[in-house]
Structures are given as structure tokens and as C-alpha cells.
Design goal:
alpha+beta; Thrombin, subunit H; 7 strands; 56% helix; 6-stranded antiparallel β-barrel
């Protein structure tokens, strides 16, 4: 548009100039070559006539041709300017990330923002960055994402704290289902001595002590005892002393030793080492039936 305005003004100027030329410098306009000059000199002394009319007609025609040539040249110059302006306007537009970097975002931030805007407006994501309404939409979406991440972080922090508490307390949850029990048992701590001639470890039993089975599963058990002297990592073997529900000795490792205020003795949490699973399942089934009958 700017090039077109300049073109029109040039044409107007040229038209005024060429229209004024016959009035200001008629001799120079018509004296295109030496023949024109002689014709003008002849017309000056001879006066008017048929020959004069021809020369004046030729002179007017020359002026018209000259004006038309100047107009065409002016139009051509204007078209060249318009073409240059259109060429500049047709430059490849900036991508979303390039525009975001221009606005001060880092490359990583621009990439993340581009992905978010692409999900919100797949066909006009750049407008989200360059308009007030679009930026408001981006801010609202980012606020929701931040809130969601904050809730997720809070949840993960709670899980982490619980795991740390379980680790610090030394509590080991058994994966298998446990059943409550109230059975008398005998327990004996096994002490390891140096290897024998065959290179095998030798264990000996310490004096057996009584205990009370609290719960039982295929993977371990909990036993209360006030006389067992064992710590985490020790090996203990225990078996049932009940006349109704009996099971053979079970070799176990001490996972945790729990002391409860106001309760007699300590609670030892065991994990079984190569237990007889079929026997344990039978005992667990009997304990479930007994519990159901009690209820």
C-alpha cells in the first residue's frame, strides 16, 4: 500500500511536469533532433500554414508519447516496490518455539510450553502465545498442572515418609495372609559354632523356653515370650505344644523384636527358612476353623 502511494505521487508529479513543458520550454520539447530544430526555425519565419499544422501535430504527438513512456516507467517502478514489499511480507513466520525464545523463555521452557499449547490449540498454538486471551488460557492450564503435580508430590512424600518409618522401626510385613492364633509353643535358640571337618556349619540348641503363638502364615509367625534371649538375625526353632493343633519344629530367623508397654515379655517376629508349606496350610486351616467356632 505504501509502495502504491509513492507510485501515484510520482505519476502526478511527472504528469504536471510534462504538461508544463510546452508552456515553459516549447523549443526544447519539440527540438528532439536537428531536424526538429530546423523545422521550428522555419515555422518561426514562415508563419502558419498546412506545414505548420503538421509540425504542431507531430510535436503534440511526441509530447503524448513522452508522457505515456514516463507513466509506464513510473508504474513499473511502483510494481517493483510493491513486489519487494510483498516479498518481505511473505517471509516464513516464526515458529512457536522461536517466538517463545524471543519473549525470553529458555529452550527447555519453550519446548515444554510448545507441547502444552499444541494440546490446547493444535491448529492455532501460536495465538496462545501472542494474544492476551491465549496467554490467559496458558496460565490457567499451567496452574492446573502445578496443582496436580503438587498433590502428586505430596502423595509421594507421604509414601516416602511411611517407608522411612517402617525402615527405622524395623517392621517387616509378611506378604502371605496371616491368621490369629493363641497356641502354646516351645522355642529354642540355635547357636552357630565353627565349621566341622566337612566344612559345614554346626548349630547347637540352647535350653528351650516356652512362648505363645500370636499369629501364623506360610511365610512367618509372631511369638510372645518373656524368657527367650534372641536378637535380630538370630536363628530360633519353635514347635507346637498344644494337644489339639500340633506342628513340627519350624526353623526361623528373627526379623524384629517388639516391646509393648504394659505387656509381659517381648514379641518376636520370625520368617521361616524352608518351611513345610503343606503342614503350615493344614495348621492355618485348623486355626481358621477354630476362630470361626469361637465367633
Amino acid at each position: 500500500m505504501e509502495g502504491r502511494d509513492r507510485s501515484v505521487s510520482n505519476e502526478t508529479y511527472i504528469f504536471i511536469l510534462t504538461a508544463a513543458l510546452p508552456l515553459v520550454w516549447p523549443q526544447h520539447l519539440l527540438a528532439i533532433d536537428e531536424g526538429h530544430a530546423k523545422a521550428l526555425q522555419y515555422m518561426k519565419f514562415k508563419g502558419t500554414g498546412s506545414d505548420d499544422t503538421v509540425w504542431y501535430a507531430l510535436g503534440g504527438l511526441a509530447v503524448i508519447v513522452f508522457v505515456l513512456v514516463l507513466v509506464k516507467i513510473s508504474q513499473w517502478i511502483g510494481q517493483q516496490r510493491d513486489g519487494t514489499a510483498r516479498g518481505r511480507a511473505k517471509k516464513v513466520p516464526l515458529t512457536f518455539r522461536e517466538r517463545a525464545v524471543e519473549l525470553g523463555f529458555k529452550m527447555g521452557e519453550a519446548k515444554t510450553l510448545s507441547n502444552i499449547a499444541g494440546r490446547l490449540a493444535p491448529h492455532s498454538s501460536l495465538e496462545l502465545l501472542t494474544t492476551d486471551k491465549g496467554r490467559a488460557s496458558l496460565i490457567a492450564d499451567l496452574s492446573r498442572r502445578v496443582q496436580r503435580r503438587e498433590r502428586e508430590i505430596k502423595l509421594l512424600q507421604g509414601v516416602k515418609e511411611k517407608l522411612e518409618r517402617i525402615r527405622d522401626e524395623g517392621v517387616h510385613k509378611r506378604e502371605t495372609v496371616r491368621v490369629e492364633a493363641d497356641l502354646p509353643v516351645w522355642m529354642v535358640k540355635k547357636v552357630q559354632y565353627e565349621a566341622d571337618e566337612n566344612g559345614e556349619d554346626v548349630f547347637t540348641n540352647i535350653e528351650q523356653v516356652p512362648g505363645q503363638l500370636i499369629d501364623l502364615s506360610e511365610g512367618g509367625a509372631s511369638v510372645r515370650s518373656s524368657t527367650l534371649d534372641a536378637q535380630v538375625g538370630d536363628l530360633v526353632e519353635f514347635w507346637s505344644s498344644d494337644t489339639q493343633i500340633w506342628f513340627s519344629p519350624l526353623l526361623s530367623g528373627v526379623l524384629n523384636v517388639e516391646t509393648q508397654e504394659g505387656a509381659e515379655g517381648k514379641i518376636f517376629h520370625f520368617h521361616f527358612i524352608d518351611p513345610p508349606v503343606s503342614q503350615l496350610r493344614s495348621v492355618i486351616q485348623l486355626l481358621k476353623i477354630e476362630e470361626y467356632e469361637v465367633i
